[in-house]
């Protein structure tokens, strides 16, 4: 059964409202995407395995925990790129492997244009990053690519999804938990999430 986690955290919800606002300029938009991503990655990594370590403080010995698992960040180009910067705040040592997918405006199908994964997986957990999960086609395709690569544990971290995309994704990949800031009800005829925030890539990179 797929897990879909929608953060109700006041900081996430406050920043999400600013992100949706059409008056938010690209600089502020990128800052908000980074901040929301940091907060969602904090949630998405709550089950990472750790081991006990001993550390010497200036005053004595303390027991602590150390992360055991290697995490890979997999941004879907373009809009996933800025999420990497937020995720790195929590996971500065994470490897980053890019997947380039572009949605065909007519068919709404994802078209793969970039993927240079190493021969076999180099990480224990993959966090797929893309702020928008609309029809779900891009997210499903990215996880298909990672599974063909041999990735075992995959999580999807987005910001806004629409119910049709969430349903499609969880049916295709019931083993992949989803972390979001919001799920909106609808898609319009052009495949945009309504109310959503518009075109995330364009708002991020100032190309709209
Ligand atoms: C957007 C978004 C997702 C995809 C979501 O990317 O960042 O990757 O659309 O739509 P879907 O769930 O219907 O597949 P887009 O293809 O516009 O590319 P961009 O990030 O380069 O702007
Ligand atoms: N891609 C976006 O950037 N926004 C949407 O609403 C849907 C797909």
Poorly predicted ranges:
none
**Main β sheet profile:** 8 strands, mixed
In whole angstroms, the N-to-C terminal distance is 38 Å
Strand content: 25-35%
- Oligomerization category of the chains in this entry: single chain
Could you name the CATH topology? Answer: Rossmann fold
The tally of structural domains comes to 1
Dominant shape: globular
Structural class: alpha/beta
Radius of gyration: 17 Å
List the ligand species: 1-O-pyrophosphono-5-O-phosphono-alpha-D-ribofuranose, uracil
CATH architecture: 3-Layer(aba) Sandwich
In short:
This protein has 208 residues and is an alpha/beta fold. It is built from six helices and 15 strands.
Structural description of this entry:
- The chain has helices at residues 10-20, 26-44, 81-90, 137-149, 163-172, 200-205, and strands at residues 4-6, 50-57, 60-67, 71-77, 95-96, 99-103, 110-115, 125-129, 132-133, 153-157, 160-162, 178-180, 182-184, 186-187, 193-194.
- It is α/β, with parallel strands linked by helices and 208 residues long.
- It contains six helices and 15 strands.
- Strands 1, 4, 5, 6, 7, 8, 10 and 12 form an eight-stranded mixed beta sheet that branches. Strands 9-11-13 form a three-stranded parallel beta sheet.
- The structure holds 1-O-pyrophosphono-5-O-phosphono-alpha-D-ribofuranose and uracil.
- Uracil (URA) binds at residues 79, 132, 134, 191-193, 196, 199-201.
